[in-house]
Amino acid sequence: MLHTQTSPARAEAPADDFATILVEQTDRLLMREVTPACLRDADAGTFPAAAWQAVCDAGLHLAMVAEEDGGVGLEAPAAARILRRAGFHGLPAPLSEDMVARALWLAAGGELGEGLVTLASGLWTGEDLATSPLPCVPWADIAAHVLVAVSDDAGKRLILVPRDAYSVKRRRNLAAEPRDTVRIHGDGLGQAMTRPWVAAPEGMDGLTVHGAFVRAQQMVGAMERCLSLAIAYANERKQFGKPIARFQAVQHMLAVAAGESAAAAAAAELAAAAFGTPHFAFAAAVAKARCGEAAGKVAEISHQVHGAMGFTREHILHVFTRRLWAWRDEFGNDAHWQERIGRVVCAEGGEALWPRLVALRAAGRLA
Amino acid sequence: MLHTQTSPARAEAPADDFATILVEQTDRLLMREVTPACLRDADAGTFPAAAWQAVCDAGLHLAMVAEEDGGVGLEAPAAARILRRAGFHGLPAPLSEDMVARALWLAAGGELGEGLVTLASGLWTGEDLATSPLPCVPWADIAAHVLVAVSDDAGKRLILVPRDAYSVKRRRNLAAEPRDTVRIHGDGLGQAMTRPWVAAPEGMDGLTVHGAFVRAQQMVGAMERCLSLAIAYANERKQFGKPIARFQAVQHMLAVAAGESAAAAAAAELAAAAFGTPHFAFAAAVAKARCGEAAGKVAEISHQVHGAMGFTREHILHVFTRRLWAWRDEFGNDAHWQERIGRVVCAEGGEALWPRLVALRAAGRLA
Amino acid sequence: MGLTLPKVYGGHERSSLERFVVTEEMLAAGAPCGAHWIADRQSAPQILRHGTEEAKALVIPRICAGTCYFGIGMSEPDSGSDLAAVRTKAVRTDGGWLLNGQKIWTTNGHRVHYLLALVRTGDAGDDRHGGLTQFLIDLEAPGIEIRPILDIAGHHEFNEVFFTDHFVPDRFVIGDVGNGWDMVTQELAFERSGPDRFMSDYRLLAALVDRIGADPGPREAVETGRLVSHLAALTAMSGSVAGMLGAGQIPNVEAALVKDVGTAFERDIPEVARRLIPIEPSLDATDDPYGEALADVMLRAPSFTLRGGTREILRSMIARGLGLR
Amino acid sequence: MGLTLPKVYGGHERSSLERFVVTEEMLAAGAPCGAHWIADRQSAPQILRHGTEEAKALVIPRICAGTCYFGIGMSEPDSGSDLAAVRTKAVRTDGGWLLNGQKIWTTNGHRVHYLLALVRTGDAGDDRHGGLTQFLIDLEAPGIEIRPILDIAGHHEFNEVFFTDHFVPDRFVIGDVGNGWDMVTQELAFERSGPDRFMSDYRLLAALVDRIGADPGPREAVETGRLVSHLAALTAMSGSVAGMLGAGQIPNVEAALVKDVGTAFERDIPEVARRLIPIEPSLDATDDPYGEALADVMLRAPSFTLRGGTREILRSMIARGLGLR
């Protein structure tokens, strides 16, 4: 539960051996590919084509796709571990977007070739889609398709919009990751493929739920990395004649960060275990809310421990803290999801709260 | 600004010599009268008649009454210092209620003999008064009069309701101070005296503003006492072979408490300086909001430093922390006043915020 | 009662995860954790692991039957966070030990039958952790005096316990002489990770939800939702520590982490509640159960971050667990 | 500029309270605190108090005219919070001193004309505070190299400054040799208590108010009102320290208190803002000034609790001021 080890082999949600091996491979791959130069180039706007190719060659983007559809067929908890490792290493590429969008589309019976798939947050009407831009779509400019969720008189469905059916205004988040504004051409929807979305979550959040789910996993990985960097720095940096790790103030700050990180990880794991169950929307809300809240605290404490050194481009810390600041506001910030949770809980009343939490955890097979 | 000294002579808002002498006398009087036995008896429900008599003999309850009306004629900032000392010593009697209610009534041209005056929060209509009980009126059972603010078609006015015109259901706050439910008899209002309230603050809060103002001052005193107790305890209590004051965790906790206490004191002093100006309602809101927020933190930290010892009846700490927990919820809790402040500020817009703060401080003669 | 204890002593031999779930349900339902609680949670597992056969036969069946209550004899006036500073002393005598000294903050000391007490039986040694031994103390035996301590709400829950030449027979020594430190450390893992460390004011949260009503404003929804997200994460964290305990591990650091995060959550509930529903909590608001619950929690809250190890002790433990050196 | 400086040097001889009010107004209006800021705030008062006549005549008039900028030469790579560990060394030479060593985190080091640098000139002594001296450093003189440091937003504000046999004439010694520690301590009181320590993101608060609009929901009103109550208290606290500085006092502890409370407030603003107005801040949201302001503050916020003394250093100072021993 002390999420500080860099090894993926630590005890976590029960995982079969295959998943554990895959996570270890992922770790080695990312350690090799996500170099300082790769991160620097991505910051400057260059897509890390080699790293992304290695990720695809390893089939990581197919993790959640069923075996009969040519995927790896991992359970969501194991796939979530891969996303946490991607967060830990700061992979500057849309693995989480492609992994979940691809899995949803194929599970809905769609077909798909190679080429990056990303997803737009929200649940749209066909009419809105034709007139309003889709804001903050990750890597939309270089994607081959954008997955969009639609709900109107024609029912809930997924739409896969190909790249030549939309135009893009480029925009970057705080971590310099592309978050483009997408405008579908007048005749663009005609080029798109559509599938009924039987497994859609309840409510009006649409794909925001799935985006929140993957961002929660990534945030957990980034928090673990921040914590691990801060611990190493505290043991190394000397002031007043001793390592700052010896100062109680530093110790207690890091204990608080470890608590936040552990709570965030627990919430993210709950959501992964609830994937595909009726509890998923609620669980994803809990995960994004809890991780979003923890992200700000862990980033703040990590910077405080690193002092001025962590405030420089030269030190790697900002790769992870800037992602935490960006990700907590994407696919619904913590306040958004807290409000959703609060509305559900209040509508059901006080006596229903405990049974709901028990059911949530049961979906997570922990009890 | 470091509000930890037990001496009233510390540098504070400018005060004339007479006020300083009176505050010093107050301090000596309260040190003498508010004994552990007095506090214990009050906790058990016995009114501290001797201490109260001493307070009245010294004329402290007349502090804000004009000299021509037989009062001391202190400016509000000096009177507020007396209330802070009452909070510091835990005087278990309604000095703040009597002081402010008496001053308001006489300033409105009313007449008044001896006998305790208290005040009800809110701004009522005559009709509501006849039908609804007044909740949480301090010491209403033993008071001679309750001051009530009324606003309806007949204008804003103050009403002084004599004891035989109302019945009481006794109730105590967390600190075992009487907070009675008052029900005015069917013909009770006929027995009451009425004066137009020319100096009423804007808005619908009525006497809640004045109650908030005095509670803010009392909270500052109680916070200073908590801090002073915690510092003394930390220097004395040994664990791991040294005073716990040497532990950085304890030092930093107390530094945070000192910051909260100092900010609360600054806000309370702003409000005192704005008494009688058009900025008073806003300043009192700021004071009660800031003090209410600080109170919870200072109480929490004081208890944490005191450990199990501070959790006992035997130790005096609870006298002050229980008052802080009670007072922060009386006459509008911090959220109530924050909302008021937020509404004013948002209605005026961002560019008006800074001029408003400057004007507030100018009313406080600090700039 | 006795859910995880062996059938041979009258227990049910259920897993500690099952006990965990039952505990949660009791707390969620607001059922009082009575005087038998400590015995069931931490004393019985200790005695089972480390006690003599006589000790086990004497107390475990009665713990399973719910007729035997335990108190914790760790803290002393000069040894709160610094347990190694224990001064209550036992000297060897015929067939046992003679105890002199004082324990403090003994929960329900006036109603329990036994203490598990940490006592100095030798030199502390370089690491300060040596020379301590755990004893089973029969509070009805001679040489014991119990004095009440009232808490800030005026309730009598805590006690001082004084020992004057109190005789403890050898069969009441729990574990090896001089090995008390390690055992207490294990015991605290049981004490710290349970749901009673973050659900003690759960009922206030449930009551707050009802008081807010089915159609909350955005402020109420956001604040309530935040608390629920914390609680959901905590139940998962605590459950995973229960699993580790059940597997025979001693997850001290993890337990400290659950307690630190858990007590912060417990302290948050009344602070959020009082800002959302503006009432003036009263000691005698018998006409308003919600106000009474709030008042009760408000006066208990300072103890949340003290009992079972102060926040500061836990954070230092966590820091060591993180590898800060 | 030069508001509080003597008229003989081209200043205006106004009170430090007046300078305080002008500073506040500039910050409230979002006016940039330019490169002359540090000179005006803390370098000029130091040189006036402790500098030689030649030093005063050389720089004060140009500071008053706004044509002479200063940097702070306190931090070194191994001496951040622990200023007493300064290793940049000056040795006596004909008519002055020869400096060797390195300073770091020099704000605007590439644009300022002078540094006030803290340099080791002798043994530290038992209290570790001896043997330090402040020098006026002319950055255009030989033996100086300046290298940029990019911050996490990619901006160039900080620098490293390297000294290689850099000559400092005697007239540039500020204060008594070996007395640098006390002077730096005083200088920090000026640096810490000003409104620039809690108003650096004031404009974001004002923009938030506008973005919320004239008729806020309860959540927006409560959160905004809370921030305003903090700001009002801070302006009063900071004003009272300005008064003490103006009266010639050295309110170190009070200044630390203002900075600690003030930076907590500064850090709160973006955190509250992002939860009230859900946007995804962007590095290139040129079509959305509010989003840009939020992004800018978000990436600067970590420095708030570092510059001018870390939160930890300040809290330890405050603790000493409280009489903890």
Q: What can you tell me about this protein's structure?
A:
The complex is a heterotetramer, with two copies of chain A (367 residues) and two copies of chain C (325 residues). Chain A is α+β, with helices and mostly antiparallel strands and 367 residues long. Chain A contains 13 helices and nine strands. Chain A has helices at residues 17-33, 36-43, 49-57, 76-89, 95-107, 126-131, 188-191, 208-236, 248-274, 280-306, 317-327, 334-348, 350-363; strands at residues 117-119, 134-138, 145-152, 155-162, 166-169, 179-184, 193-196, 238-239, 242-243. A four-stranded mixed beta sheet of chain A has the order 1-3-4-7. In chain A, strands 2-6-5 form a three-stranded antiparallel beta sheet. In chain A, a hairpin with a 2-residue loop joins strand 3 (145-152) and strand 4. In chain A, helix 10 runs antiparallel to helix 11. The radius of gyration of chain A is 20 Å and the shape is globular. Chain C is 45% helix and 17% strand. Chain C has nine helices and eight strands. Chain C is globular, with a radius of gyration of 21 Å. Chains in contact: A-B, A-C, A-D, B-C, B-D, C-D. Chains B and D meet through helix 8, helix 9, helix 10, helix 12 and helix 13 of B and helix 1, helix 5, helix 6, helix 7 and helix 9 of D.
Please give the oligomerization state of what you see.
heterotetramer
Q: Count of helices of chain A?
A: 13
Question: How are the strands ordered across the major sheet of chain A?
Answer: 1-3-4-7
Could you tell me the number of beta strands of chain C?
8
| Total strand segments of chain A | 9
Q: What is the H/E order of chain A?
A: HHHHHEHEEEEEHEHEEHHHHH
Report the major sheet of chain C.
4 strands, mixed
The radius of gyration of chain C is: 21 Å
Largest interface chains and counts = B-D, 56 and 58 residues
Helix content of chain A: 40-55%
Unreliable sequence segments of chain A: 3-13
With helices defined by DSSP (H or I, 4 residues minimum), what is the helix count of chain C?
9
* Helical/strand content category of chain C: alpha+beta
Q: In what range is the share of β-strand residues of chain A?
A: 5-15%
The largest sheet of chain A is: 4 strands, mixed
